[in-house]
Specification:
The structure holds two protein chains of two kinds.
Chain A: H1 4-41, H2 43-59, H3 68-71, E1 78-84, H4 94-111, E2 115-121, H5 123-130, E3 135-140, H6 146-165, E4 171-181, E5 184-193, H7 202-209, E6 213-215, H8 218-292
Parallel strand pairs in A: 1-2, 1-4, 2-3
Antiparallel strand pairs in A: 4-5
Helix pairs in contact in A: 1-8, 2-7, 2-8, 6-8
Chain B: E1 2-7, E2 12-18, E3 20-25, E4 28-32, E5 36-43, E6 46-52, E7 55-62, E8 65-71, E9 73-78, E10 81-83, H1 96-100, H2 105-116
The chains are: A alpha/beta, B mainly beta.
């Protein structure tokens, strides 16, 4: 028969766990709102920038005139993957989904005869990839404030431009959990080098670029725009990933809170049953004692 | 009136109808007014002035960025922006913009100049 004292302790410990998980859920919910707002408000800049870039790039008829950093190198051999994970755990399958996805991508690339380098964002990715034999070029951690997110994006941008110029990498992709809704996040790849411009269709950019005048000339403008665009894309992925993280944490903590509630119900039932069994047993003892006299 | 929209990487700073906006283009200042020919330019550090009937209504320091002009829309993508009404020659070094520009001597120099003696007053 279970010990009453033990059961009581167990119930109170599950109760405090429930308090913690429900508090974490609330915190995640409020952080999610802020992260979502940030992600949405940064979209305006990103959209305008990619509009300008595509009208510029579209205007140059001969793609050989465009810098390598925009079009990518022929026969690229080394791919860099930037993985956006979280700093903290307790957010369900957020990180493990991402890593599983990355593993597939990496073996795909290796199958094509390319070697893969990794750049990690967030503590979880850096501790995960340390254990693998992949080449980690840089790790960034503690993205706990918006200023820091911007700063890290800037550092990543500088790092990839430097690596590209030194011919240490030929392609760059970024992997992050795209925020679809509060209950669904989707591991997504975005190619930075070469630039993916799937957002504007061919004929749309064709029609815009005919009319614009550029100042200073296109090449100088591109020189300014390309790093800006990297920064914006990286920053955007960091923001999306942070919104997704909070959403994932909110759902998983909600589940945990519910599970703890169920567990408390079950334990309370066992506790009451045990208590009643004790009372009955004691009564039987008293009665049989009285009968014996 | 032209719709002036000022956007930083983080957020939309403001969006409003103005008569004219003077911007520090990479190859010289230019005025954004309705029906300007479609135009894309980068910005150098300098003063952005919102004007009506030849008077400056509002004035900002921008550290650089991009501008896209088409018909009745003027979109300004700024790196850093500081309203000049909030700063003067004694406190501009405490502003967030100043600290973020740390190390960028040309931009800081222009900031100082714009604070002390703006080209458009």
């Amino acid at each position: 028969m279970p010990n009453l004292k033990e059961l009581k302790n167990r119930i109170s410990s599950v109760k405090s766990t429930r308090k913690i998980t429900s508090a974490m859920k609330m915190v995640a919910a409020s952080k999610l709102r802020r992260a979502q707002e940030l992600a949405e408000s940064s979209r305006v800049y990103a959209d305008s920038l990619s509009f300008i870039l595509s009208s510029l790039a579209g205007n140059t008829k001969n793609s050989a005139d465009l810098p390598e950093i925009l079009t990518g190198r022929e026969n690229s051999k080394i791919s860099l993957l930037i993985i956006n994970s979280s700093d903290r755990g307790l957010c369900g399958g957020f990180n493990s989904n991402l890593f599983r996805n990355a593993k597939k991508w990496i073996s795909d690339q290796q199958g094509q005869g390319k070697s893969v380098k990794i750049m990690t964002v967030g503590k979880k990715a850096s501790s995960f990839y340390k254990k693998t034999d992949l080449d980690i070029v840089a790790s960034f951690e503690d993205l706990n404030s918006n200023d820091r997110q911007l700063q890290v994006s800037e550092e990543i941008k500088n790092k990839i431009m430097e690596l590209f110029e030194n011919n240490e990498i030929d392609e760059v992709s970024i992997l992050f959990n795209k925020f679809v809704s509060a209950i669904s996040q989707e591991p997504t790849y975005q190619s930075l080098i070469p630039l993916s411009n799937d957002e504007t269709s061919e004929d749309e950019s064709e029609s815009i670029n005919a009319i614009f005048e550029f100042e200073p000339d296109k090449n100088e403008l591109l020189e300014y725009l390309v790093p800006r665009n990297f920064l914006t894309q990286i920053y955007r992925s960091v923001l999306e990933s942070s919104a997704s993280e909070h959403a994932a944490r909110m759902t998983s903590m909600d589940n945990a809170t519910r599970n703890a509630g169920d567990m408390i119900d079950r334990l309370t039932l066992t506790y009451n049953r045990t208590r009643q069994a004790f009372i009955t047993k004691e009564l039987i003892e008293i009665i049989s004692g009285a009968e014996a006299v | 009136m032209i719709n002036l929209k000022v956007v930083s990487p983080q957020k939309v700073i403001f969006e409003k109808e103005v008569e004219m906006a003077v911007l520090p283009g990479a190859e010289g200042d230019f005025a954004a007014m309705p029906n300007h020919s479609p135009f894309i330019s980068s910005l150098r550090p300098g003063q952005m002035a919102i004007m009506s009937s030849n008077k400056v209504d509002e004035s900002f320091f921008v550290s650089g960025g991009l501008v896209m002009l088409k018909e009745k829309v003027c979109e300004v993508l700024v790196d850093q922006i500081e309203p000049l009404s909030d700063v003067n020659s004694s406190n501009y070094q405490q502003s967030k913009t100043y600290q973020e520009l740390e190390g960028n001597e040309t931009a800081l120099g222009t900031f100082e100049q714009v604070v002390n003696n703006p080209p458009y007053k």
